[in-house]
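Q: Given only this backbone (335 positions), what sequence would you predict?
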């Protein structure tokens, strides 16, 4: 496992991280042995763990980490998030968002709740969870976050964009104006915008802020785990993907077999290595459902792209992989 730093902070993290989203919910398939996945991550050299109060019910995405953190807190770079009111009902039935509450007093209470569930007294990286533009512009919110840093409860600040793909103005404003050390965004070798736009921001170019990739396998079109005709069951988050968009991504992925055939990489490892070939990205958060996947994806850190492979991948991206899109993915925005 190789390691990189968030911006110019002291937070050095594994190039492949581990997220608890799939452990805390059944939105990507049911997981039997959650602790086996956690320990597979740690045994693979992963030290960056991403969670959030809203993962699962009653903050379960955080509380399931308490024992691991108690065993060796200093070995783990922990990130959790703020913004959602986990005591409120979802806005709509199913997988809709819960309401946000960005009042400074609410953020302080949210942090205290996270610390209690996690069984720790500090968070390494505290991220705003799926913010629209208003909280990014709210000076009183950021003053409160600064006070939490000064109190030692939070080491560094970041922003995690979502849901879905986009949020260009939100991301650029956060990078330019808020002194964050990380920005989390949907980014994979088939869907590189708006990640490339964020990577061109001066603070990212200068290494003051770096990026986190989520959805690195483009909803499994790059993992080799599903096929074109796979029918996802009700409640599976991948059902939210536009069908034509999924077919477009399968077509594009089919042009990239040279990244895995004969290279020693699996298809899923090649997808991660392609992201890590961009130095703006510090770490990748793959979506995993068993310990074997954790180990497979963690190993991608040791299988980097060559300079020639990176150049060929960039050329393929610039040519849209030779594919005519059936569907143009809109970029979400609150501006």
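A: Predicted residues:
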């Amino acid at each position: 496992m190789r390691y990189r730093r968030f911006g110019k902070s002291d937070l050095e993290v594994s190039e492949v991280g581990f997220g608890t989203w799939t452990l805390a919910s059944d939105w990507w398939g049911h997981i039997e042995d959650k602790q086996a996945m956690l320990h597979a991550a740690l045994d693979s050299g992963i030290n960056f763990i991403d969670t959030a109060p809203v993962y699962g019910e009653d903050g379960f995405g955080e509380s399931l980490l308490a024992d691991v953190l108690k065993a060796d807190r200093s070995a783990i770079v922990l990130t959790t998030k703020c913004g959602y009111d986990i005591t409120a009902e979802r806005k709509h039935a199913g997988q809709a968002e819960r309401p946000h509450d960005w009042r400074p007093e609410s953020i302080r209470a949210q942090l205290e709740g996270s610390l209690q569930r996690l069984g720790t007294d500090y968070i390494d990286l505290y991220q705003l969870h799926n913010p629209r533009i208003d909280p990014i512009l709210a000076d009183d919110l950021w003053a409160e976050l600064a006070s939490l840093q000064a109190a030692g409860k939070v080491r560094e600040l970041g922003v995690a964009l979502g849901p879905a793909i986009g949020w260009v103005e939100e991301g650029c404003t956060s990078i330019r104006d808020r002194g964050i050390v990380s920005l989390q965004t949907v980014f994979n070798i088939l869907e590189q915008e708006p990640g490339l736009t964020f990577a061109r921001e001066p603070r990212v170019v200068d290494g003051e802020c770096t990026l986190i990739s989520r959805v690195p396998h483009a909803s499994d079109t790059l993992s080799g785990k599903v096929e074109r005709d796979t029918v996802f069951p009700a409640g599976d988050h991948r059902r939210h993907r536009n069908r034509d968009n999924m077919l477009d991504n399968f077509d594009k992925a089919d042009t990239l077999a040279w990244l895995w055939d004969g290279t020693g990489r699996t298809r899923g490892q090649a997808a991660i290595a392609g992201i890590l070939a961009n130095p703006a990205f510090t770490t990748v958060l793959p979506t995993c459902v068993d310990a074997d996947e954790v180990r497979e994806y963690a190993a991608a850190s040791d299988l980097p792209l060559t300079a020639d492979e990176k150049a060929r991948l960039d050329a393929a991206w610039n040519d849209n992989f030779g594919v005519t899109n059936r569907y143009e993915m809109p970029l979400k925005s609150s501006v």
